[in-house]
Amino acid sequence: MSNLKIQITRNENKKEKVPADQLIFGRTFTDHMFIADYTEGIGWHDHRIIPYQPVTLDPSATIFHYGQTVFEGMKAYLSDDGIVRLFRPEENMKRMNNSCDRMSMAKIDEEHALEALKQLIEVDKEWIPSEPGTSLYIRPFMIATESHLGVSASLTYSFIIIMSPVGSYYKEGIHPVKILVESEYVRAVAGGTGTAKTAGNYASCLKAQEVADLGGYAQVLWLDGIERKYIEEVGSMNVFFKIGGEVVTPALNGSILDGITRKSIIQLLKHWDVPVTERKVSMEEIREAYRTGKLDEAFGTGTAAVISPIGELRWKGELFYVNNGETGELSKKLYDTLTGIQKGTVQDPFGWVVEL
Amino acid sequence: MSNLKIQITRNENKKEKVPADQLIFGRTFTDHMFIADYTEGIGWHDHRIIPYQPVTLDPSATIFHYGQTVFEGMKAYLSDDGIVRLFRPEENMKRMNNSCDRMSMAKIDEEHALEALKQLIEVDKEWIPSEPGTSLYIRPFMIATESHLGVSASLTYSFIIIMSPVGSYYKEGIHPVKILVESEYVRAVAGGTGTAKTAGNYASCLKAQEVADLGGYAQVLWLDGIERKYIEEVGSMNVFFKIGGEVVTPALNGSILDGITRKSIIQLLKHWDVPVTERKVSMEEIREAYRTGKLDEAFGTGTAAVISPIGELRWKGELFYVNNGETGELSKKLYDTLTGIQKGTVQDPFGWVVEL
């Protein structure tokens, strides 16, 4: 289908592999990378797989000054049957283009990007770890490369894919984390860039994370920037609560990221006939649920952890414990099912998995 | 005072100068740049002036993914007496550190940064144009350079200064522009990063600027992200209105940039005994002032234009004309005084100018 021509230059100086139990997230990269360049008036050109190497840019490049950049995060899984699987990769490419639109950046050809990714994985297949819980983390990203200090959209871009073998997120099994509800800093508001997967959203969150770290909290929970009462996201994940039998998650409101794990979980819950609602969820509602013993479960969802159970929430000095600080039954079932589908050990009724 | 050691490597391949009337903002750069590196646990090191050259970074560098970067904009002026002048440069370095704090980045030594800037200007002095209205635009910036995809503050940074000779902002004399009041997109809210001079704030504004461009508007005027009624900034400038004899500008509220031109203008107006107030300014108030004939003047303020008079405002289909679309008396006086102080032709009663 795809008529994409990719020039492949093999790396003659392959790196030594790092044992799976020594992998640190995002520190080790494979031997190759994909890159394509965009020039206004010409389009995308020079699609190539090359040895993993530095990027060279003029110090006036737009990315350094005005932050035009978007990224995606996805994973490839190698199962015992030797098959490599991707989880809904077309959704990542689609979202990347939505992000590009918000940031006034060139759009990718989604089909070409997927083709490039598949070829890159093929070239670096030996880098995919197969131990339980491991995967190959994939980072497609685009940067604005024009040498110009005027505040305007760049006329040139590079689309790059790098890959990093990652160990198990839960080395000692899935377990809940403590979360600090953020009351001072704001992640995003409607009309801003909160729905785009762009660098500025992450830089702005580091300050709040520093405060959370000091208190021994794994992540912050973001409230809306207007009334500071409605729940938005937790760290860089979407968030779900099970309250008195109903599963609720903040509705996409123009400032929340449209998570692929999030939408998969909603689909899975509906498939199981578990009541799930996308709506506004306030901290007052969480407090009330806690006080009346209805706060059954809480968990973050994202590509890295898949499901990250929440055992404790701190909000303005109040502490809400969830499920005695233990992983809830539904959280565990969702985790096992999703990771099972991703690994090919659980049947995929939705056609989510792409086998390479 | 400063005990900073800067290694200087001269450029043996100097570029040809571009005639002042052919300079385009931020396209031409001088022969040298300053760079220093930061490593957590060591601090700033390897302060050096080197030939202007590309920056080389690992594709996993934090700047590409999580947007930790801050910048400043300032100008050096060469006057007929051969003296090079900077305008309140210590304010830029101070603000840069405030931005670094918000973005969880390493702080610079402000005195060292000024010393580095002065030495860089000395090395590239021949690049400062002297024609009326011209200057040497200076761009200090810092980028996060660590090779790591984990979402956390980088442990390494580079602080870089590049310089670009710029022509006159007003080739045909100071003149008013048309401004579109933005109702869909939001620049920043309190708790976000609006007060920091960081890349993400600029990337997020490009989409609205695209719409403004299509309608023939020079810039957008940003409203607050919460009630969408109070004025924040215009494009990447602060904004002032003269209403019935009083000059008003939006108060610093946690989402507006603390502009150095802005604060200089407030000081100058007070020095002149012109009533000036920092407070909330709503679009309803501007409409009312327009309808009652009290909207005397409006102008943006920033390093690039110094004063940018506003001749027309469009808000939800309504048009407000300011001063018959001509530059107001006060706007002109502020422009002449500030640019005169910067060039050394008008006395500087505030000690703003630093002569090199």
TrEMBL record, chains A, B:
| Keywords associated with the record | Amino-acid biosynthesis, Aminotransferase, Branched-chain amino acid biosynthesis, Pyridoxal phosphate, Transferase
Q: Which residues carry this modification: N6-(pyridoxal phosphate)lysine?
A: 197
State the pathway, as annotated in the record.
Answer: Amino-acid biosynthesis; L-leucine biosynthesis; L-leucine from 3-methyl-2-oxobutanoate: step 4/4; Amino-acid biosynthesis; L-isoleucine biosynthesis; L-isoleucine from 2-oxobutanoate: step 4/4; Amino-acid biosynthesis; L-valine biosynthesis; L-valine from pyruvate: step 4/4
State the Pfam families in the record. Answer: Aminotran_4
Reaction catalysed? L-isoleucine + 2-oxoglutarate = (S)-3-methyl-2-oxopentanoate + L-glutamate; L-leucine + 2-oxoglutarate = 4-methyl-2-oxopentanoate + L-glutamate; L-valine + 2-oxoglutarate = 3-methyl-2-oxobutanoate + L-glutamate
Task: Enumerate the cofactors the protein uses.
Answer: pyridoxal 5'-phosphate
SUPFAM superfamilies registered for this protein in UniProt: D-aminoacid aminotransferase-like PLP-dependent enzymes (SSF56752)
Q: Show the InterPro entries listed in the entry.
A: Aminotrans_IV (IPR001544), Aminotrans_IV_CS (IPR018300), Aminotransferase-like (IPR036038), B_amino_transII (IPR005786), BCAT-like_C (IPR043132), BCAT-like_N (IPR043131), BCAT_family (IPR033939)
Q: What is its EC number?
A: 2.6.1.42
- Membrane-spanning ranges: none
What CDD domains does this protein's entry cite?
Answer: BCAT_beta_family (cd01557)
User: What Gene3D superfamilies is this protein classified in?
Assistant: 3.30.470.10, D-amino Acid Aminotransferase, subunit A, domain 2
EC top class named in words: transferase
- Say yes or no: keyword Amino-acid biosynthesis present: yes
The UniProt entry's GO biological process terms, in alphabetical order, are:
isoleucine biosynthetic process; L-leucine biosynthetic process; L-valine biosynthetic process
What GO molecular functions are on record for this protein?
Answer: L-isoleucine-2-oxoglutarate transaminase activity; L-leucine-2-oxoglutarate transaminase activity; L-valine-2-oxoglutarate transaminase activity
Question: What family does the Swiss-Prot or TrEMBL record give for this protein?
Answer: Belongs to the class-IV pyridoxal-phosphate-dependent aminotransferase family.
The record's NCBIfam families line, in alphabetical order, gives: ilvE_II, PRK13357.1
- Write down what this protein is called: Branched-chain-amino-acid aminotransferase
Q: Which organism is it from?
A: Psychrobacillus glaciei
